[in-house]
Amino acid sequence: MTKRRFKNCKPVGANLSLGNSLVNCIEEKRKTFNRSRKDSDGHQFQNLDNAIEAKAVDSRTHESAMDEFMATAELAGREFNADKNHVRVLSAAEKASVVTKKSFNITDAQRAELESNLPIPRRPYKLKWESTEELVKAENNAFLEWRGKLAAIQEKATVMLTPFERNLELWRQLWRVVERSDIVVQIVDARNPLLFRSVDLERYVEEVDPRKRNVILINKADLLTKDQVEEWRKYFVDNGIIAVFWSALIAAQKLEEARRQQEEVEAALKAAQLRGSSDEEEEEDELENKAVPEGSTSEAVAETVAEEIIPEEIPFIHDAHELLTYLKGHVNLDFVNRSVTIGMVGYPNVGKSSTINSILGGKKVSVSATPGKTKHFQTFIIDETMTLCDCPGLTMPSYALNAGEMLINGILPSNQMQDHFEAGVMIASRVPRRVFEIIYSILLPKTVDFETDEGYTNGIDLLTTAAFAKGYMSTSGVPDYSRACRMIIKNVVDGVISWVKAPPNGSQKDFDTSSFKAILSRECKGNAFVLQQISKRNLLEGTSGKLNAIDKNFFNPNVGAAHTMGVYMPKAGANNKICLKKPKKDKLRRTYVHLDA
Question: Tens digit of pLDDT for each residue in 63-103?
C-alpha cells in the first residue's frame, strides 16, 4: 500500500507528468482523426475550435507589423514556406518624437483634403458574385484594396491617420445595418463632432440607395454651455448638415424620475387600500390625477421646454418621444407606407446603446464604460411602424495628430494606451493649470519665465504631481505615470474635465473660457507639501526646480568669503556648562556642501 498523498500536494518522480501525457495523447488522437475525415468533395472538416474562432468578433485597431502581414496574407489566401538559407537582421529601433503644442495645429485646407479622401470599405455589388464563396472572396479583395488606399494616403499626408478598425467582420455588420436602414443616424460626441463624423459614410449610404437619409445625432450635448451649442448650431446650419442635439443622460434621468413617480403612486394606492379609510375614493381620485398617463414609456417622459426647441432649424431634444418624431419626419416619403428602420451607427463609446435604452424605456442593450461593448448588430421593434437597428461601434479612419487624441476622446480604451506621456502632454496643453489644481487639490509648478506664463503646465509635471497626490507609486519608488494618466483620461471622457472643441473659424479661447468658468469659480485647496517633495527629488520636467535651488543659494546672505580651519575654543553647552570635548573633524567639502552651486 502506497503512502497517502494529500490533494494539495503535487505528484513527484515518474508520476509528475503522467496525467499531462495522457491528456496530450488523447488530444493528438482527436486531431489526427479530424484531419483524416473528408467529405465527398475532398475538403477537410473544420474542428469545433476553428468554428468558434471564426465567429469571434473583436475590435482590432492596433496591429504589429507581423500581425498586419499575417492578416493580409490570410485575406489574400496566400501560403508561405520557410526559407532558412537567406537570413536578414532587422532593427527594431524606432524614432521617438516629442509632442509639442505647435504640432497640434492643422490648417483648414489640410482638414478639407483629408475629409474628402478618407474612404470606408464598400461591400461588393451583387453583379460581382453569385455564391457565398465568391462573396467572401470579393469582400476580402475589396478590404485589401481599401487598406492599400489608406496606406497610400498616410504616406502623402502631413498628419497621421487615427487607428482604424482592421477587423473585416465588424465592417460586415455596418454593411448589413446600412442595407436594412431607411434612415441612418450617425451619433457623434458633442465635444468634438467633426472628429466623430464620417463624410464618406454619408456618401456610402446614398450609394446604396439614394432614397436613404443621413442624420447626425449630437449626443452628450449636456456637457456644452448654451453659447457653445449656439455656435455649433450655426455651423451646421451654414453648411447644410441635418443634425440634432441630444443627451441620452438627461433622457435616462427623466425616465427614471417618471418611473419613480409611478412607483410612488402605486405604493400610495396600495397603502390606501390596506387602510380601508372612509375617504379612500377621494384619495384614489387625487392620486390618479397625479399619476402618469398611460401609453408608451417614452411618452411618459416629462415635457420639454418649448422655447428650447427650434423645429425649423437644429433643435435640442431632451425627450425620447420627440426624438422618434423628429427622425420619422425625415424619412423619405417612399418608405412611409411600411415599417421604417432607423440605423444607429458611429464610433465606440459615443452613446448608441444608451440612446436606444432611453428610447425603449429600459435596459435592452448592454452598456459599458469600455468602448466596443456591442459585437453584433441588433434590431428592436418599437411599434408596428418603427424599428431600431443598433450597429457595433466602428473606429473609422479620420485625421488626427496621434493616438493620444483618440484616448482623451474615448474612442480607444485606456487599457490600450501605449504612450501615456503623449496623452498627458495633449491634455495639459488644452486645460488650464488652475483647473487641475482645483479638481485634484494640488499645486502645479509654474514656468521659469513668469512673464510669458500662459496659465498651462506640461504633461510630465501634471502626471508626476497627480501621481504623488493620489499615492500612485511604482515598486521602484517613482511615480506611476501610466496610472495617473488613466485616471485623468477617465475624468476627461466622463466629463469631469470638460474640454469642448470650437467649430472651424471659431475662437477656441472663448470656448475654453466658457467651459471652465464654473470650475475656476471654486476655491483651490491644494497643498504645497507635494510640490516641495517633488522638487527635492528633481522629478519636475526641465530645470525649473534646479534653477530655483541655484538662485536660492546664490542670493544667500550667509555665504562666507573663504573656508579656513580656525582654532578650537570651548563653548557653553547645556545648563551653561563648558564642554571641552572637541567635535569630530570633518572635511571642508562636506561641512560646506550647502554652499556649493
Answer: 666 666 666 666 666 665 656 566 666 555 544 444 444 44
- Residue 378 and residue 440 in one domain: no
- Residue 572 located in a structural domain: no
Count of CB atoms within 10 A of residue 354's CB?
21
573's grid cell: 553647552
The more confidently predicted of residues 428 and 581 is: 428
From residue 285, alpha-carbon distances to 281, 289, 291, 338 in Å are: 6, 6, 10, 41
Backbone angles phi, psi at 246, to 5 degrees: -155, 150
Alpha-carbon span 497 to 440, nearest angstrom: 11
With helix as H, strand as E and coil as C, how does 193-209 read?
Answer: HHHHCCHHHHHHHHHHC
Residues paired with residue 380 on neighbouring β-strands, in sequence order: 388
Residue-wise pLDDT for 531-578, tens only, equals 777 777 667 765 455 555 566 666 665 555 555 555 555 566 666 666
Q: What is the total residue count of the chain?
A: 597
Question: Residue 210 falls within a domain, yes or no?
Answer: yes
Strand ranges, E, within 123-269: 183-189, 213-219, 243-246
User: Does the predicted model carry a pTM greater than 0.90?
Assistant: no
386-390 and 578-579 beta bridge pairing: unpaired
Question: Residues 430, 388: one domain?
Answer: no
Same domain, 489 and 422: yes
Distance, in Å, from the CA atom of 148 to the CA atom of 397, rounded to the nearest integer, reads 13
Task: Clarify whether residues 375 and 436 are in a common domain.
Answer: no
pLDDT band at 24 (very low <50, low <70, confident <90, very high): confident
What letter represents residue 2's amino acid?
T
Helices (H), 276-340: 280-290, 320-329
Ranges assigned E (strand) in 321-458: 340-346, 378-383, 386-390
Q: What is the mean pLDDT of residues 128-153?
A: 82
Which tens digits make up the pLDDT trace of 319-367?
A: 888 888 888 888 888 887 888 999 999 888 888 888 888 888 776 666 6
Distance (Å, rounded) from C-alpha 154 to C-alpha 314? 35
Q: How many domains does one find in the chain?
A: 2
User: How far is C-alpha 497 from the chain's CA centre?
Assistant: 14
Is 575 inside a domain boundary?
Answer: no
Please report which confidence band the pLDDT of residue 49 belongs to, taking 50, 70 and 90 as the band edges: very low
Residues 348/391, Cβ–Cβ less than 8 Å:
no
Reading the block at residue 22, the C-alpha cell is: 495522457
Question: Domain range spanning residue 519?
Answer: 413-553
**Alpha-carbon span 383 to 485, nearest angstrom:** 45
Do 395 and 72 meet the contact criterion of CB atoms below 8 Å apart?
A: no
